[in-house]
Each structure stands twice: as structure tokens, then as C-alpha cells.
Q: What sequence folds into this?
């Protein structure tokens, strides 16, 4: 296959944003009939590379060759016309349109100058059935879950006679079955001669589905490798640019800690119809309680009830033995509870504000309108936490939206740490951020719990939960199923079995 | 905000609009003698035909997530252009009418281009357009120009009989034709669906490779075109050109579209709904006329109350459907 | 870099203002001169400040509303209502001295704040989009104003009423003191308390702000009430200027001029960062434009055309897209433009 003519070659691509060089001299070569992974930490430039390739951003330097000819792609439409189709990380469809429309819009089927709805509905149905999805295609997209929306996005990409298909984190919201389904489709398309770009944070999936991979780091080109020839550890160290000593250290994080059996917060059949079944849970002082479960198991929903982000319709919360009711996050914050949402972009950062302002927001909100923290004091606090959490760039006046995902997450963490919380709820704090930042965040959690902070840690990665937590609670189908003490007997298999359910 | 609207939501505001219209009409018929005649109904169309045309253009703009504040002023400008070309330059209507339509379309097109190419806010751009169009009509003349021309007389006075004694005017015919064309465009053409897509999420529409820029420019061009058609109809109606014509008409148009069930955030709405929105505004005025003792400012208050009603209704539907979806 | 951005945001509005004033100087060499006559400072610049007072006031309120991603279309109608209430109150109370004036001012301001609160309730509690919520009062408010005045222009014969808009204090028009007071109040509230930060946070990302423990509902209520208050003060000044109340025409198009002033001043309609000093300059630009047109003898009706052109020029100059396309500088990618134009920072 190495002899085949590449379908697409990107050479020495440069892309600059004000103050940032997002890509400097990146190469990418795609061959027909291959699945190609682009690997890198957050901020490595994967998304930028994709957006440059699909014409969302103009290129500042370098050249693109498509099927042997030099091309300049100026818009997503041009990219599509060339045969380059993309499914983005965040589903980019129109939720106010029907499923059929989302698949067909831009290339509708016409009959006598009129849109032929019936034919489009039928084809959409067939197309989705090819993805083993049987749904009512006349319904609005908004009536379906994100996972289904993702499949519809893929169906849309497949509907064009694509020659290059780019899948940017397509699996992040799919469960295992759906991933298998997707992979069988990818294999089929690969055999049909498509060049497929596959981006994912899941190493297992990379090794399962891709043939070749390109590694980026900090906007620079590190190299191209055949997937089967590069061992995992080598790949990871190329991505993060250092040896993996720290990864191993985490293994021992949860050990030798004197766990206090003093309850900080407990619930008594707390529940919300349609979100989470009534549950009783106890979080002790200075302990890390893990919440494991598949997507949609109700982990976030549970956390939001504890923080007052949603209102329960059943049950009670007890805080340090006293019954309490949180009718808003504000009240929970007054009781020294903090909450990092899994949706960093929509529920975490305030994009217009600087790193400093994002950090002091909660504590200032706690102080109210008139106990204003002076600018000098704000600077001081921000500088302290920037160096504590190793935030990069170390400029408190930088707008937070210009930071990479991992650094944004650290700023949000700092926002809560400043308030000295007694309970910190971390909902997928490590999602979508690079391994270096992941390690730092997990270390931080352990240190905090040693100092007496209770932590509710939600993660999709079982390894992380096993490494960090004292106890683990497993949710399944919006129900709290079981709690485990984290000791030698608790294995990944055991947890997974509980998460998956059945026998 | 509109991310979680289930299917039923799509038609509900339209149903509500039509129901309110029927209710109000029923109320009028019950209370005032002579209200329930086909001519009273047809007069709603006759007196508001220009507003119907404006509302059609505005519907597309609002569905796309934009707004067009220039429509009232474009009416004034059209009336001035028509009047001055006909009366001062003695040009034939065959030349005057196309020029008028061109003026509106160009203003709309330029607004759309500014919005698209320079990423300016529709609100501000069309606000400038509003000032510009009205200012230009004053540049043509500060005074009223009365129109005395057989063509305008013909357009104004011709009655097309339907149902025995009742009649409509040519303006109504024009308005209804535009409504029918617009319904077709909205439902059965690529352009129409692109409008909805842009209103749903412009970013997504862009990434899906839809011609966002072209569509946006066309939307505002169409709205400008509708405004000039409305302007011509208004000129037939008033038989004069004046810079103060249709002052604040953009507000009535927006109100009609909202009362017609179109979401001001974009992404959902129907042209047919806007037609009924206009009819509801018309029937309020008719009722106030029939009531006799009410002063004219009650119209404004009534429209305000109705807007409130509709807006709160939309909110309730949205909140309810969200709840329903969450618990299913 | 932050300072540079700040400068470039205020730079263009200031340049435009200076250019407009200089144009006046060409037509009227004595334009910048200020005389002292009968215990009053007289001159075109004083005049611009005096006449611009209502617009500046309303624009200040509008700035805070827009910063929360809102908009207040009802201010023009609130002006009419405030004028009507003020005029009707002073005419219907029999009394000498300042009693009726204080009652009228108090009553008007209370009603204006309540009216603003109504907008605030619709927006923050019921969740109606601001443009729609305030549209209701924009339409109905004028009807209510006419209802108050009985549809007629009410003339005021009570002299102390004139002081608000036409009186002088320390040789300067009293309205300038009112504006200064409200501006300082707004600056204090937003820069010396944390309210400014909260407004920007809520405007930039409401849900994240809620989860950070901010009470966005109260913050929104507050800005709409403040906007109502500003419109009320403006309405009193306008009505006092002409010693009458006209429900139909008072404050007509003020909402648009105010929004214009805010946008010219560099605050984005997308919410988030706001710039009160920019708004002040924006309002002054609009007012000087009007004054200029009168003073250089262009027909008053063409005011609108020139206003339109200025609006476009200022907006285009602020658009990074435009700067990139025309001047070839400012390499900003498309999707970031909106964000970029909001990048004003507090000093």
C-alpha cells in the first residue's frame, strides 16, 4: 500500500492566530483505503489542522496537494465539492431541522424544481439503516440523543461521494456497541477505498481501527508511523514529549491515606424524575468517592442534584448531619461545595473574561457586590494559582478562551480551590485534555483529599477511578447500583461488569 | 434555547395564531352587527396588503436569525421615488415600477452584503439602512408629492369582485401571490431550507457546506424587494409620496411576524403564520373602529398585550416540552 | 497588549468625534470658543453636552443591558411615559415652591424603575429574549403615555419644572450635572464594586455564571431597572426642556440612537465586555453630528443620511473583517471576529 499514490498531501502547513502559532510546518499524507490517526495532546493542533484542511481557516503557509494536484481550499463547501467530508467533535448539525434535512441539506433531491421530500425521507431511512439505526427521520434532530445525532452526522458525511472522510472524535459520546457499529462502517468504507482520518483520545480504538498515524505536539510535526509498528508507550511519550515515569506514580496515589469515616454529605433517597432514581450516598471527609458508569448512567445528573444545579423532587440532603436544601448553586457554594462541570465550554469558562477574572469569579460572587477584591489582590491570587497549577501561558490577563482545554480546566479548578471547598465535585475533569494535565489534576486531587477535602470524582476512565478513589459507586441506567471499597479485590473487570449490568 | 424543541412545537404557535384570529373574529361578529360580512374580512386584506408583503420578507429574515429594521423607511423611499419619477420626471409606470423594485432590492442586497462580508450585526446595519432610506426620501423632497396618474388610479380603484357583492383590490392579489410564492420557497426550495438551517445554527450551516453568505444576502435582498413591493402598494393606497410614510411600520411588521408564531431567535416559523399575524393586527383596529368610543392609542396597547400573550405562550410551550422530554 | 487593545477600541470613536468637531471649526471658526454671559457659560461645546444629556443618560443604561447580552427597546417609550407622568403630576398638583417638583421627580423615577423591573422580570424570570420582551413595552408604552396625557400635548406652566432640563448651576447647564452624577454612579457600581464583573460574566456565559454561584436573575433585574431609571431621568429632562409632554413623539427613536451610541463606543451587541467611556463618546458623536448639521446649514432632514453613513463607517472601522480586507492588516480568522470585537478590557 506504500506504493499507492497518496490521495492527499499537506506539506509544511503553517497557521497563525493572533499571538499564537497553532501549526508550524505540519505534514500529513493520506492514502486511499487507509485509516489515518492524528495523535496529539490538547493544543497539539489536531483540530486546527482539520479546520485548515476543510477550509474553515485559511492557510498561512505550506501547500496542499489533492490527488496529485495543488489545491487551495477556501471554504467547507469547496472541501466537500472536492470530496472531503467531516464529522466534527461537537455535532455540527441544525437541531431545528428534521433528521432527513440534516442529512440532505445542501444537496437535496429535487423533482420538477421542487424538493422531493418523500424520496429524501426514504433514502435517509435507508442510509441510517445501513448504520443499524432505525429512527423516525421526519422528526426534528433535537428529539434525539447526542449519540444518535453523531450517527446522523456520520450518515450525512457518507451521503456525499466522499473520497476523504474526517472523523474528529466521533466516539467520545458513543457507547461500546455504537463504537463497534461505527467501526464496522469505517472498515467497510476503508475497503471501498476511502481515505479516513480518525481522531480519538482512546488509545484502544486507535490501535483497533487505524493503519497509520501522524503525531503532533504543540503545533509541530513529530512524525508519521505505521500503527502496528509503534508500541503504546512509545506513542504516548512522543505525544507528551517526556518519558512516562509520572504515569506509573499515579498507581500508588490512593495508598497509605488515613481515611476518615466522618460523613460530610449524605443523601436520603434523593431523586429527580426522569434524571436519576432516588439514591442514598455518603461522602466522607477527606475521601475521594468515584462515580463510575456508562454515558447516560446518571452520573452528571446525580452530581447536579448535590450542587443545587437541578432541584430534586424527592428525598433529602444531609450536610454534616443536618438536613439542608440547595435551591441554587449559590447555596451549595456557601456550604463550601464546588462543582466543575463536564461541559467546560458551555458551563465552565467565561470566554470574554481573563484568566484572572475567571479565577476569582466564585469567591467574588460569594463576597457579593460590595466586598470588592482589589485588582492587586486579584493579581496576587491569580499568580499564585497559575504557578501552583502550572498554567500555561502564565499570564493572568490572557483571555481564557485563548488557552488550551487542559489549561482552561486548570483555571476552572483554581476558581474552586480559591474558595477552599470542603467538597469538590469534579465531573470528567480529565476529559479531552492531554496526559500531562491529566496527571497533574489527579495528583492535585490526591493532595487535596489528604488535606481533608472530600472529592466526588466522575470519570469514564475506569483506570483513573481505580487509581485515585477510596471508594467507588457505580451507576447504571440512572440508578445507583453498588458501592465498592477500592482495595485489591476491586478490578477493572468487576467494575465494568457492574457498569454494563446483566450477568 | 431552541435546541430541545420536540416536533409538536413546530405547529403549535401557528395553531394558536389561527385560533386567536378566529376567536377575535367571532368576538367581533358577536358584538357588532355587520362585522360578520365577507367584505369586512376582505377589507382586512385590502387595508393591510402592504403589511402582508412586508411580513413575508421579514419572516424569512427573522427565521434566519436576523432582523430588518429598514422596511418602513424603504416604503417611504419607494413612495417618494415612485411619486417623483411619475410626477416630476413624467416617466411611464413601466419604467417607474421596476426602478422602485430595484431600489428596495438594492438596499436589501447591500445590507445583506455588509452583514455577511464584514460580519456586522443585522440590527445595526438595517438600522443604518432605516436612517438612510428615510433620509434619502427627504433628500428627494421634504414635501408630500401627490400622485395623479391613470395607472395609479387604476391600481387603486380597480375592484375584483368575488362572492357576489364583495371585492378585493389588485394589491390584495399581489400580496396573496407573494404569500403563495413565499410558502413555496420556504418549504420546497433549497434556498428556503437553507434559511431555516442558518437560523438553527449558522456555524453548523457553514460547516455543512451550505452557501451561508449567498443565502444571507438573498434573504435581505428578498426582504428589501418585499419592502419595495409593499411600498408600491402603499403608494397605490395613499397616492402620494412622503418621507414620513409608514413611520414605525417595521415595528408593526415585526409584531405581526411574532404574533404569527415565528421565533425571534430564528430557526422556526411559517409565512402563513405571518399572514394571520397581520390579520390579527388588522382585526384589532377594526374592533376599535367598531367600538367607536376607544381612542387610537388603545391599538398600541392591545398589540402590546397580544405580543405579551404570544411571547409568554411560546415560553410556556418551550418550558413544558422541555419538561416532557426530560421525564420521558 | 491589553492596553493597546483598549486604545484601539476607543481610538476610532475618538477620531470620529474629533473629526466631526473639526469640521465644525472649518465652517465656524468660533466653534470651540466658550463665552461667559449672564452667569452662564455659552458655546457650541456646552450646547452639545447639554442637548446630548438625555441620550448620554439612556446610553449608559443601555450599555449595561447590552453587556448582559440583552437589549432595551423600550427606552424611547419610557421617555414618553416619564415625560407624561412628570408633566401631568406638576400640573395636577396645586402648590407653590419645590414641593410638586420633588413629588413629580420622585413619582416618575419610581414608575420608570418599576417599568424597567417589568422588562427585567420578563427577561430574567420568565426567560423571554430581551429584544422581544422589551418590544412589548416599546409598542404599548407609547399607548400608555398617550393614555396618561389623554392623547394631547400637555403643556406645563409650573416654572421650577424647567430647572431640570434648562436650569443652570455654577454657570453650567444643570443637565450636565445630572449626567455626570449618573455616569459616576454607573462607573462606581461597575468598577469599584464587583457588579461590573458579574454583568460581564453573565453576558458572556450565563449558565457558567449560574454554576459559579452568581445570581444572574438579580443582575439582569438590576440592569433593566437601571436602564428604566436612566430613561426616566432622560424623559424628565426632555420634557422639562420643552415644558410639555407629548406621548406620541417624545423620545422617538431614542432606543436606536442609544444602541448606536453603545455600539459606536465599542460594546458588542453579543454581550460581555462593556465600555462606559466608549458609550459616552458614542453618544457625543451622535449629538455633535446633529448639532453640526444644523450649524453648517445642511437641510435638517438629511441628518438621517449622514447618521446612516457615520454608523456604517464606525461599524466598518471596528470590524476586524473590514480592516483585514481593506487594509490588509489584522490577521484574524473568520470565526474569531465576533470575539475579537469584544476584546475591550477594563483599564
A:
Amino acid at each position: 500500500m506504500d506504493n499507492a499514490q497518496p490521495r492527499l498531501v499537506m506539506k509544511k502547513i503553517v497557521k497563525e492566530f493572533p499571538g499564537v502559532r497553532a501549526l508550524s510546518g505540519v505534514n500529513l499524507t493520506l492514502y486511499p483505503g487507509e485509516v489515518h490517526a492524528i495523535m496529539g495532546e490538547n493544543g497539539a493542533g489536531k483540530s486546527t489542522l482539520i479546520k485548515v484542511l476543510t477550509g474553515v481557516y485559511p492557510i498561512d503557509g505550506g501547500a496542499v496537494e489533492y490527488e496529485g494536484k495543488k489545491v487551495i481550499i477556501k471554504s467547507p463547501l469547496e472541501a466537500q465539492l472536492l470530496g472531503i467530508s467531516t464529522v466534527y467533535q461537537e455535532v455540527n448539525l441544525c437541531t431545528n431541522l428534521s433528521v432527513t434535512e440534516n442529512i440532505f441539506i445542501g444537496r437535496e433531491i429535487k423533482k420538477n424544481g421542487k424538493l422531493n421530500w418523500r424520496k429524501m425521507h426514504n433514502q435517509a431511512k435507508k442510509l441510517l439503516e445501513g448504520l443499524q439505526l432505525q429512527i423516525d427521520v421526519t422528526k426534528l434532530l433535537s428529539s434525539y440523543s447526542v449519540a444518535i445525532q453523531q450517527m446522523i452526522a456520520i450518515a450525512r458525511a457518507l451521503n456525499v461521494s466522499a473520497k476523504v472522510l474526517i472523523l474528529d472524535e466521533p466516539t467520545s459520546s458513543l457507547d461500546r456497541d455504537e463504537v463497534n457499529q461505527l467501526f464496522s462502517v469505517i472498515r467497510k468504507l476503508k475497503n471501498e477505498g476511502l481515505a479516513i482520518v480518525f481522531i480519538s483520545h482512546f488509545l484502544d480504538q486507535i490501535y483497533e481501527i487505524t493503519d497509520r498515524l501522524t503525531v503532533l505536539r504543540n503545533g509541530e510535526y513529530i512524525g508519521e508511523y505505521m500503527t502496528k509498528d509503534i508500541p503504546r508507550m512509545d506513542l504516548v511519550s512522543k505525544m507528551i514529549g517526556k518519558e512516562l515515569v509520572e504515569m506509573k506514580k499515579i498507581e500508588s496515589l490512593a495508598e497509605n491515606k488515613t481515611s476518615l469515616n466522618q460523613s460530610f454529605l449524605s443523601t436520603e433517597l434523593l431523586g429527580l424524575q426522569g434524571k436519576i432514581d432516588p439514591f442514598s450516598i455518603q461522602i466522607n471527609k477527606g475521601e475521594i468517592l468515584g462515580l463510575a458508569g456508562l454515558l447516560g448512567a446518571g452520573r452528571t445528573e446525580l452530581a447536579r442534584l448535590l450542587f443545587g444545579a437541578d432541584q430534586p423532587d424527592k428525598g433529602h440532603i444531609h450536610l454534616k448531619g443536618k438536613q439542608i436544601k440547595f435551591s441554587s448553586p449559590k447555596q451549595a457554594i456557601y456550604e463550601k461545595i464546588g462543582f466543575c462541570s463536564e461541559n467546560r465550554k458551555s458551563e465552565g469558562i467565561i470566554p470574554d473574561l481573563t484568566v484572572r477574572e475567571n479565577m476569582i469569579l466564585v469567591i467574588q460572587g460569594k463576597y457579593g457586590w460590595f466586598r470588592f477584591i482589589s485588582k492587586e489582590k486579584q493579581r496576587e491570587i491569580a499568580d499564585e494559582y497559575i504557578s501552583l497549577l502550572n498554567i500555561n501561558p502564565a499570564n493572568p490577563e490572557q483571555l481564557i478562551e485563548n488557552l488550551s482545554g487542559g489549561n482552561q480546566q486548570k483555571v476552572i479548578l483554581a476558581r474552586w480551590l480559591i474558595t477552599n471547598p470542603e467538597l469538590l465535585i469534579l465531573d470528567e475533569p480529565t476529559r479531552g485534555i492531554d496526559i500531562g494535565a491529566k496527571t497533574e489534576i489527579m495528583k492535585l486531587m490526591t493532595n487535596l483529599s489528604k488535606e481533608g477535602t472530600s472529592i466526588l470524582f466522575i470519570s469514564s476512565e475506569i483506570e483513573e477511578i481505580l487509581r485515585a478513589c477510596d471508594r467507588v459507586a457505580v451507576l447504571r441506567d440512572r440508578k445507583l447500583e453498588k458501592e465498592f471499597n477500592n482495595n485489591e479485590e476491586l478490578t477493572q473487570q468487576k467494575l465494568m461488569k457492574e457498569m454494563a449490568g446483566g450477568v | 434555547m431552541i435546541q430541545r424543541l420536540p416536533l409538536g412545537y413546530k405547529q403549535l404557535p401557528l395553531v394558536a395564531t389561527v385560533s386567536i384570529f378566529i376567536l377575535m373574529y367571532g368576538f367581533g361578529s358577536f358584538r357588532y352587527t355587520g362585522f360578520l360580512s365577507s367584505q369586512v374580512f376582505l377589507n382586512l386584506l385590502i387595508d393591510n396588503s402592504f403589511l402582508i408583503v412586508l411580513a413575508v420578507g421579514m419572516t424569512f429574515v427573522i427565521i434566519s436569525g436576523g432582523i430588518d429594521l429598514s422596511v418602513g423607511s424603504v416604503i417611504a423611499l419607494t413612495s417618494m421615488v415612485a411619486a417623483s419619477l411619475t410626477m416630476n420626471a413624467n416617466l411611464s409606470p413601466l419604467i417607474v415600477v421596476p426602478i422602485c423594485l430595484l431600489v428596495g432590492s438594492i438596499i436589501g442586497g447591500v445590507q445583506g452584503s455588509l452583514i455577511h462580508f464584514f460580519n456586522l450585526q443585522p440590527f445595526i446595519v438595517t438600522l443604518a439602512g432605516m436612517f438612510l432610506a428615510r433620509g434619502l426620501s427627504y433628500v428627494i423632497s421634504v414635501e408630500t408629492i401627490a400622485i395623479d396618474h391613470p395607472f395609479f388610479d387604476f391600481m387603486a380603484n380597480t375592484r375584483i369582485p368575488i362572492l357576489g357583492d364583495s371585492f378585493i383590490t389588485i394589491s390584495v392579489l399581489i400580496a396573496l401571490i407573494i404569500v403563495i410564492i413565499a410558502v413555496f420557497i420556504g418549504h420546497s426550495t433549497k434556498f428556503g431550507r437553507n434559511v431555516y438551517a442558518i437560523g438553527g445554527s449558522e456555524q453548523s450551516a457553514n460547516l455543512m457546506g451550505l452557501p451561508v453568505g449567498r443565502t444571507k444576502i438573498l434573504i435581505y435582498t428578498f426582504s428589501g424587494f418585499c419592502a419595495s413591493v409593499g411600498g408600491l402598494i402603499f403608494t397605490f393606497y395613499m397616492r402620494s409620496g412622503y418621507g414620513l410614510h409608514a413611520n414605525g411600520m417595521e415595528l408593526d411588521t415585526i409584531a405581526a411576524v411574532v404574533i404569527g408564531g415565528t421565533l425571534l431567535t430564528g430557526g422556526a416559523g411559517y409565512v402563513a403564520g405571518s399572514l394571520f399575524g397581520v390579520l390579527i393586527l388588522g382585526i384589532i383596529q377594526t374592533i376599535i373602529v367598531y367600538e367607536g368610543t376607544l381612542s387610537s392609542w388603545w391599538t398600541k396597547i392591545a398589540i402590546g398585550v397580544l405580543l405579551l400573550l404570544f411571547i409568554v405562550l411560546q415560553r410556556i410551550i418551550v418550558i413544558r416540552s422541555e419538561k416532557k422530554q426530560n421525564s420521558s | 497588549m491589553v492596553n493597546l487593545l483598549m486604545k484601539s477600541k476607543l481610538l476610532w470613536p475618538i477620531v470620529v468625534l474629533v473629526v466631526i468637531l473639526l469640521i465644525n471649526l472649518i465652517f465656524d471658526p468660533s466653534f470651540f470658543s466658550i463665552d461667559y454671559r449672564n452667569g452662564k457659560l455659552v458655546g457650541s461645546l456646552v450646547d452639545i453636552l447639554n442637548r446630548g444629556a438625555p441620550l448620554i443618560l439612556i446610553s449608559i443604561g443601555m450599555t449595561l443591558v447590552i453587556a448582559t447580552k440583552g437589549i432595551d427597546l423600550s427606552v424611547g417609550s419610557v421617555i414618553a411615559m416619564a415625560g407624561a407622568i412628570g408633566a401631568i403630576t406638576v400640573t395636577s398638583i396645586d402648590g407653590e415652591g419645590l414641593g410638586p417638583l420633588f413629588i413629580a421627580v420622585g413619582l416618575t423615577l419610581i414608575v420608570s424603575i418599576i417599568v424597567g423591573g417589568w422588562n427585567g422580570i420578563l427577561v430574567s424570570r420568565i426567560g423571554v429574549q430581551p429584544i422581544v420582551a422589551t418590544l412589548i413595552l416599546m409598542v404599548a408604552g407609547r399607548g400608555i403615555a398617550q393614555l396618561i396625557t389623554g392623547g394631547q400635548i400637555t403643556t406645563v406652566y409650573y416654572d421650577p419644572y424647567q430647572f431640570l432640563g434648562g436650569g443652570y448651576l455654577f454657570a453650567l447647564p444643570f443637565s450636565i450635572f445630572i449626567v455626570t452624577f449618573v455616569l459616576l454612579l454607573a462607573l462606581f457600581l461597575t468598577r469599584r464594586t464587583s457588579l461590573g464583573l458579574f454583568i460581564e460574566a453573565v453576558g458572556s456565559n450565563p449558565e457558567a455564571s449560574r454554576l459559579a454561584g452568581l445570581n444572574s436573575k438579580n443582575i439582569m433585574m438590576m440592569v433593566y431597572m437601571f436602564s428604566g431609571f436612566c430613561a426616566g431621568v432622560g424623559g424628565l429632562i426632555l420634557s422639562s426642556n420643552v415644558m410639555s409632554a407629548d406621548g406620541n413623539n417624545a423620545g422617538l427613536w431614542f432606543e436606536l440612537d442609544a444602541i448606536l451610541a453603545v455600539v459606536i463606543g465599542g460594546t458588542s451587541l453579543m454581550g460581555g465586555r462593556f465600555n462606559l467611556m466608549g458609550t459616552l463618546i458614542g453618544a457625543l458623536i451622535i449629538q455633535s453630528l446633529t448639532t453640526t448639521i444644523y450649524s453648517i446649514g445642511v437641510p435638517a432632514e438629511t441628518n438621517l443620511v449622514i447618521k446612516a453613513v457615520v454608523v456604517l463607517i464606525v461599524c466598518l472601522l471596528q470590524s476586524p473583517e473590514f480592516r483585514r480586507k481593506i487594509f490588509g492588516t489584522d490577521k484574524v480568522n473568520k470565526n474569531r471576529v465576533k470575539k475579537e470585537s469584544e476584546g475591550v478590557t477594563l483599564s
Notes: The two ends of chain C are 12 Å apart (CA to CA).
